[in-house]
Amino acid sequence: MLKRVAIKGAMALAVSAALISGVQAADTIKIGSFLAVTGPASFLGDPELKTLQMYVDKINAEGGLLGKQVELVHYDTAGNAQKARTFVKRLIESDNVDLIVGGSTSGATLAVIPLVESAKVPFISLAGAVAIVDPVKKWVFKTPHTDRMAAEKIFEDMKSRGFKKVALISGTGGFGRSGRAQATQVIGKYGLELVADETYGPKDTDMTAQLTKIKSTAGVDAILNFGFGQGPAIVTKNYKQLGIDLPLYQSHGVASKKFIELAGNASEGVRLPAAALLLAEQLPDSSAQKPVVVKYKTEYEQKYNSEVSTFGGHAYDGLMLAVNAIKKAGSTDKEKVRAAIESTKNYVGTGGVVNMSAEDHLGLDLSAFKILEIRNGDWTLVK
Amino acid sequence: MSVEFLQYLFSGVTIGATYALVGLGFAIIYNASHVINFAQGEFIMIGSMATVSFLAMGMPMPVAILLAVALAVVTGMLLQKFAVAPAKNADVVTIIIITIGASILLRGLAQVFWGKSFHALPAFSGNEPINIAGATIVPQNLWVLGVTLVIVAAVSWFFTKTIIGKAILATSHNADAAKLVGINTNMILLFAFGLSALLGAVAGIIVAPITTTSYEVGIMLGLKGFVAAVLGGLGSGVGAIVGGLILGIAEAMAAGYISSDYKDAVPFVIILFILFFMPSGLFGSRGTERV
After folding, report:
1. ipTM reported for the complex, 2 dp
2. What's the predicted TM-score (pTM) here?
3. Domain assignments of chain A as residue spans, ordered by start
């Protein structure tokens, strides 16, 4: 009997504690986040979280948002889609967040879409796959360019150089598979022909066999490699070893200095599509993006003493889209915020100029991508 | 012989040589203790990652390599002393599980101290491709083959000509009898772990310029090395080397002539066949059960 009373007492305490914390929550604007800060996709989640923390602190230091402090509620998914679901449930049901910015990988994002859709919480994803915004989902937005856009940008460049036949080599990880699917879908639009289609495992350490096959395929004009991690670096090294004198294109998956470091001088002359952020100071002064990316780059590099990456830039764009929308909506009413994000026009971010609409929850066009070439171990803009 | 065939062969032999070194490490520990040391892959990782970080501290390459190998050897001995030795009366299976635990611990420590990103070692002597009958290799391929040959020769000399080597062999044949003739079998085990850590670390360092390295590079290489050791007949040094080469070449040929999708399945298909038709491997001594 006594025991039961004790339990009831404890429950009452817990309920009142929850009530109190609920009251407190009303004084802050809660932005929820779930990122792959550890695990295989940590190179995405780590700069993303650092960026979110840095700018949330900055907003609070400058007086907050709508006169309230912003609170970042973050959970580490370690790149696991199942965990992502659990955490998003927690964000929605027990943390009562006003909006979610997160989801480092496409897998994690796609897994939580049904949850945010039924809970009607605005969600800005930081992952790449086209499937996130195509078809459009009412509550889901995203900031990074899609792999389809990367493929289109590459084929556009190949076409302008008069190439006809393309050899594709791609990783069998999520990114490479999706990239391969998109590339094979859009290649026809550019009048190009796929003459070789090779793959390699995400942990493979030698791709000379696949590249030898490509080398002995007749009539290839250019090679395209879709993948990320160390794979593309090994492909590039092997390509140099085999003395293949065809132009090599990489995807935006290698758009970090790490790639140049890993591939060494074999990366000379490699072309890839990437966001303007990588060029920063090299951008022409006429570019509207220049002040934004230079500012983000200096602030990030000063604070964390490490090279800026486009992934952190996606988080910056996501947070700013959210902040602008809340300002515009003048409240944290979820439907108003959602509508405000959807009506974003001419937002200049690190990824490009964003113009959203009810049919387009990404809002970037091909001009957001620049084709870069690696020269002397650094990025150069191809004009 | 077509150019492609030659190219696949070179790739296969290079990667096969590293499998062989790793496999040899498995074989040495198995011989001395009948334990499969699943932390073998982590020695590969420690060798290459430590070299990367010593280089980053500004040390010249040879010093960095020596220190990294030494670090791996010490780790191997500590592993034996503090994880394997205390459980010496336990089942072999228990000890194998201990080594799996140790490998997870080592990987975790590496993740904390060295971070999670990939690193490349500079090639030992340049990156200019060498053309051999139409196929090309980089100088690092030759380093891998050369170092492997030297190590294999040194190891076989060690086991047949030195007193410690003979003592290890004696222990592997009959630990009790070895003890009776005055061999300190505990020291032998310690030595075996140190030696196989050395082999793993060297393998890791010589391939790192080709394959790049990270805190989890040991998983796949370790597994393939294990397959090489089993393929050749567990405990046979020659077997591990032949097994490694067969594995490497089969993988490269499969990627070249069949499809790269099936490349990683090849080792496991081969091992299924070998175990089915020759349960003790290519060079393993036929096990006899006494009733």
Report:
1. 0.78
2. 0.79
3. 29-147+294-368, 151-280+369-381
